[in-house]
Amino acid sequence: MAETFDVIVIGGGIMGCSSAYQLAKRGLKVALVEKGHIGDGPTGKSSAIIRQHYSNELTARMAYHSLGIFQNFEDEIGDTCGFKRTGFVALVAAKDQVGLDANVKFQRGLGIKTEVMSPEALREIIPGLETTDLVAAVYEPESGYADAYLATNAYAQAAQLLGANILVKTNVEGIRFEGDRVVGIDSSTVKLDAPNILCCTGAWTGAVAKMAEVDAPINACRVQVAYFRRPDGSEAQHPVVVDFINAIYFRPEAGNLTIAGLVDPSEANAIVDPNNYNEALDYEFVPDVGKRLICRFPAMEMAGSAGGYASLYAVTPDWHPVIDEVPEGSGFYICSGFSGHGFKLGPAVGVMVTDMIVGERNPVFDPHLFRFRRYQENDPVRGKYEYSIVG
Ligand SMILES: Cc1cc2nc3c(=O)[nH]c(=O)nc-3n(C[C@H](O)[C@H](O)[C@H](O)COP(=O)(O)OP(=O)(O)OC[C@H]3O[C@@H](n4cnc5c(N)ncnc54)[C@H](O)[C@@H]3O)c2cc1C
Predict the structure, then answer these.
(1) Which end of the chain is more exposed for a tag (fewer CB within 10 A), N or C?
(2) Rounded to an integer, what distance in angstroms lies between the CA atom of residue 318 and that of residue 380?
(3) Angle value at C-alpha 270, between 265 and 275, nearest 5 degrees
(4) pLDDT band with cut points at 50, 70 and 90 for residue 390
């Protein structure tokens, strides 16, 4: 006979593990089912930048809450997430100055430590940064990056200590219904029963949602990340930088490395089969991203290439997630489509989906903005002042 749970979570990335932890903390009997190992999907390949600069209030609030958890991760979750406070800088062109000022104003109102910065002040924080072409920047002194693999495994372990059943190497192959309600899953190794199924399957959500006869507008898109070894004389750690002018982000990594990737909406066009795509870097990617990096940080001209990889974003039409029960009353919940900026929101997402499943209204993290039907309603998520796909 199949074992019965209150909730079955499918997917052991940051969203599945944070949710499993919060659900178990509320006293629910939880099973988490992952086809590979915990955190070894796209979450484990994440650049894991943690910043709070968003153009809509809900996501900024989620990022702010989550930063507080990452800062105190051992106390809150019981193990390390490798958080490094480096500071975060976003650079914008003249046309975006008004939007930047407005975003910073509302973020400060939420309690976020953030300030608009002149190019001169910026050069004091990052000596050698090329600033002649930019008008303004924003600086968050408390932000940085973490180790997404460690954070996710810490959540899984904490969930397990609270009684959650974590099943790895278990591929979900079917979702069972009785009438209009879910009753369980069939997997490669076990059958499990539950009246609630939470689908945290990232780039695989299209296929898993189909098992519940839901057509989810979430594509698996291939993205790349390159590593560069900082040259002699420039070994010092720099803050995380998102440069909207050159459409690039970069952050330091251990061993004098700098990780760089693109901030490019056209990455949504690189739709691939998540079970069969090229995980190696394209030949042209390193010189392309390298040139953009040198433009902003000329000292990197003498940097050495140190490899990289390709992984997957789960991209929705408006680059914001779906967090909703679909259809209403079915017990099938989608929590996916974080479109390349979800890691930093993981702690808040766990709280949000738990409230949704237990039927508690949380005015701080009201998920209405991320409802499934917003695309049919032609009401996608939009910030008042957006520069790119920053959200
Ligand atoms: C290169 C890269 C850089 C990024 N940089 C940042 C960043 O700097 N900051 C930031 O905030 N975010 C960043 N992101 C985005 C962030 O990492 C993701 O939004 C987040 O990790 C998504 O987590 P997830 O749990 O939704 O999905 P995933 O990590 O994809 O987890 C989904 C899991 O579901 C499992 N699964 C799928 N199908 C099944 C099935 N049938 N049965 C069982 N299990 C299944 C998969 O194996 C996988 O482990 C980046 C992402 C990438 C790829």
Answers:
(1) N
(2) 6
(3) 135
(4) low
Q: What CA–CA distance (Å, rounded) separates 297 from 139?
A: 17
Q: Would the pLDDT of 385 be above 80? A: no
Domain span including residue 325: 3-45+149-218+318-374
d(CA 154, CA 14): 10
pTM of structure: 0.97
Alpha-carbon distance values, 197 to 36, 211, 332, 355 (Å) = 19, 12, 5, 14
Of the listed ranges 17-26, 91-100, 188-197, the one predicted with least confidence? 91-100
Q: Whose CA is nearest to atom 35 of ligand 1?
A: 11
Assess contact for 51 and 140: CB atoms under 8 A. yes
DSSP assigned state of 316: -
- Which two structure tokens, joined as six digits, stand for 27? 């006293």
Q: How far is the CA of 340 from the centre of ligand 1 (A)?
A: 8
Ligand 1 atom 32, closest CA: 201
Q: Are 99 and 390 in contact (CB under 8 A)?
A: no
What per-residue confidence (pLDDT) applies to 391?
Answer: 62
What does the H/E/C string look like for 265-308? HHHHHCECECCECCCCCCCCHHHHHHHHHHHHCHHHHHCEEEEE
Give the residue, 236 or 24, on which the prediction is more confident: 24
> What pLDDT is stored for residue 383 in this prediction?
82
Does the residue 227 lie in any domain? Answer: yes
Count of domains forming the chain: 2
Q: From the CB of 24, is ligand 1 less than 6 Å away?
A: no
In a domain, 67, yes or no: no
Residue 225 alpha carbon, nearest atom of ligand 1: 1
Residues 6+ apart with CB under 8 A from 368: none
Residues 6+ apart with CB under 8 A from 230: 256, 257, 258, 299, 300, 303
Q: β-strands 49-50, 240-243: how paired?
A: unpaired
Cis peptide before 327 (omega within 30 of 0): yes
Are both 229 and 134 inside the same structural domain? yes
Residue 39 Cβ < 6 Å to ligand 1: no
Give the integer Cα–Cα distance in Å for 81 and 57.
26
